[in-house]
Amino acid sequence: MPTNSSNSGLRSNAVLTAIGSYVPDSVLTNADLERMVDTNDEWIIRRTGIAERRVTAPEQYCSDLCIEATADLQRRYNVKLDDVDYIIVATTTADMPFPSVSARLQEAFGIEACGAIDLQAACAGFTAALQTANGLLYSGAARKVLVVGADTMTKITDYTDRTTCILFGDGAGALLLEADDSRDGDLLASHSVTTGSGGHQVYMTGLSQSIGEHQLSNPGKIVQNGREVYKWAVSTVPDGIERILSKTDYTVADIDWFVPHSANMRIIESICERSGIPVDRTLVSLVQYGNTSSATIPLALDLAVKDGRLSQGQLVLMYGFGAGLTQAGVLMRWGLPSAE
């Protein structure tokens, strides 16, 4: 199998062959939120950079978003999906605990011989799923992997909490990765780290109502200590970026596009300042779609593909971070040509 000559930390034969995305039709604007809680458009824009977000219909769930994003991928790139042999869906808002969202996706496209798993790493889920897909492809356990990041965050949002309800939206993005043993893969380096001691800073309750000695509140809704999550992200993500680049011959100056989790524009600006990446070299999806958790990075990628900013051969650094507290980053040489 090939190895990446500029990589001391990740071996890859994974080639990106298609991308797709989907967001629901319903739009929730800052003006709409002004009528729901004590907030206003100027405050939301100044604190987060978010102008609007998309909201699923009552009968629309995570699997529906995944199906639509995958159909978009198939239509735009005219790719076969019946020979996909693994599906990975990154989500924290599955339709139900089981069956998995990935199993619903497998059924929808009639893929006969296919492994299917949901991966839960919150806002780091999509990049963690890319790392997992690369391992499956390089090991030979799979030859064609569909990776989807999707969340219906509005279904777990507390719309009486003015500090969190302004953030979240719904959406999905999908990438198709295939093994190509004739050349180096598109994935160049990766990094993962978890700080479990901070798990109580952002959570949604399940069977347990506590994390260690920390008692949890507001069952079934997301709870976040925004100040602490901000401090954790801006103090640790720049180190993760440096660790990824240290595994290659590249520097910050070589990065064409930085694609962080679109949590909050103020967090992104601080990470860029500390890591030396110009803000104008970032791709985000939060302005139009808000914080869609696992979907923010693929949505940002596809927005840039559609408007021509992201092109074949560019160096792209994706970095997810969120509940856990968990981080996962991937450096990729963008190998996808424009769709016909």
Descriptive terms for the model:
disordered N terminus, single chain, Peroxisomal Thiolase, Chain A, domain 1, 9 helices, alpha+beta, 2 domains, four-stranded mixed beta sheet, 340 residues, five-stranded mixed beta sheet
Q: What ranges have pLDDT less than 50 throughout 5 or more consecutive residues? A: 1-8
The CATH class of the largest domain is identified as Alpha Beta
> Helix share of residues?
25-40%
Number of helices: 9
Span of the ends, CA to CA: 30 Å
Find the structural class using helix and strand composition: alpha+beta
Domain count: the total is: 2
Annotation, overall tally of beta strands: 15
Shape: globular
In the CATH hierarchy, the third-tier topology of the largest domain is known as: Peroxisomal Thiolase, Chain A, domain 1
CATH architecture classification of the largest domain: 3-Layer(aba) Sandwich
Which range does the strand content fall in?
A: 15-25%
